Amino acid sequence: MYENGDTRHQHHTQADYFEGAQVEENEGGEESGGGEEGEEEGEYDEEDDLHGDDEDHESVVSAYSEDQSDSEEDVDGVVREEMDSFCRHFKGIDRRFRLISKIGEGTFSSVYKAEDLLYDRYENDWDLDASDDGRDRSPPPSKRRKFTETQRRRPKYVAIKKIYVTSSPQRIMNELELLHELRGCRDVVPLITAFRHLDQVVAILPYFKHVDFRTYFRALSFDDMRLYFKSLFNALSHVHRCKIIHRDIKPTNFLYDYARRRGVLVDFGLAEREGTDWSHCPCQLSGLSKSHNSLMQATTLSTGYIKNDNRPSRRANRAGTRGFRAPEVLFKCTSQTTKIDIWSAGVVLLTMLSKRFPFFNSADDVDATIEIATIFGKARMRSCALLHGAVFETNIPTIGEKGFTLEKIIMWATNRIAGGGGKEREKDELREANMSATEKVACEFLARCLELDPAKRIDADEAMEHEFLRGL
Ligand SMILES: Nc1ncnc2c1ncn2[C@@H]1O[C@H](COP(=O)(O)OP(=O)(O)O)[C@@H](O)[C@H]1O
Ligand SMILES: [Mg+2]
User: Fold this and answer.
1) Superfamily for domain range 1-56+67-208
2) Region labeled Disordered — which residues (predicted)?
3) What is the pTM assigned to this prediction?
4) Residue 25: pLDDT above 90?
């Protein structure tokens, strides 16, 4: 057990220390002194350089640094009381962190912004930007004096993710373990450390400044979108190479700093290793055998439904968020892959291009299937279902046999064409031709992400080479 009950390493790599130590119990042990927020006078403080206050200095901007001006928000009484209660009950936490505000309330946790009071006592190797961009540089002597006279160390911020005590220990451990394993990618949030007091576990992550997706997604230019997805797909490429499925890709789990054009993927609460609970699904068969299999099932089922069907119902992991679930999740595929994240990322792009959020707004999985079918049409949905040994049939009149192109959906959603058939439809197609060349590239990329068959869907590495993301 570490002397301070902290899994971090004092002047060593924090993440390395976490390895094997699992979550250390926080016993509120005595501090070993020193390292308080006010550093000693007379020393140059490289942290000051991070914020580029001195106009003569080349500034080093960390994705996790920020202006002090927006760091202290007004907090309402209820939240203040909640934070105070947390500090009172979680022994020793207030000696390490000063809670500032509540930044998130998810399904599985409450997240607080806090000042890291002991930042200087630990090695902070997780801060890749800071370590890459020359934190070792010394300023010229004249600047050294100027700094010591006018500057004091700026606070460092963290996000404290208080995981609800109702979460199973396995689930919590899974999240922390995967986060730890995924360290080293700029676009994935690094785990700094974690604490446990009684049944309460908290994960400490660097605070990443971001704005609510809903405030900017309509205003994004084509290049903005490309940068957003470059960052998201870079994160996915890293996660998927580690054979990990995130399972919950959506805007609230990809924190994007619009001003800096940087994003980080967070929330590995539902993530799993590819192959967990894996069992055979017909989609695993390829080529001829696959279509033969599908045909067999179609023939069997065309004779009707079994009256008293006592076959056990199919079970598959459905974890994720409504509206972002891939078709194979909806059809309960039992051999889901990392491709489910690509579909969800595609839904985010569809949201941006259509300027509608949420794009899909289903109450349940049946509704979600219907929404997808409205776009793709009955024919493609039938083969998609059969791929996973399921059957899709509907008599909803608005679902056509052929469905629509994604270009058309986007033109409709952005009021550039009216719906309808016949002559109206011809006019639509003419106007569709007027979609800008850049938008067409984005649509083509979108179609690759929203491919119904996961085997044909683009993967993260291929996505990085697609014209939409290439060369950024
Ligand atoms: N490192 C971070 N920096 C800033 N805000 C964060 C950070 N991590 C999480 N948040 C905020 O808290 C919210 C919930 O966190 P998340 O990890 O997604 O938890 P949950 O599993 O409860 O959804 C996020 O949507 C985001 O707004
Ligand atoms: Mg979340």
Assistant:
1) Phosphorylase Kinase; domain 1 (3.30.200.20)
2) 1-76, 129-152
3) 0.83
4) no
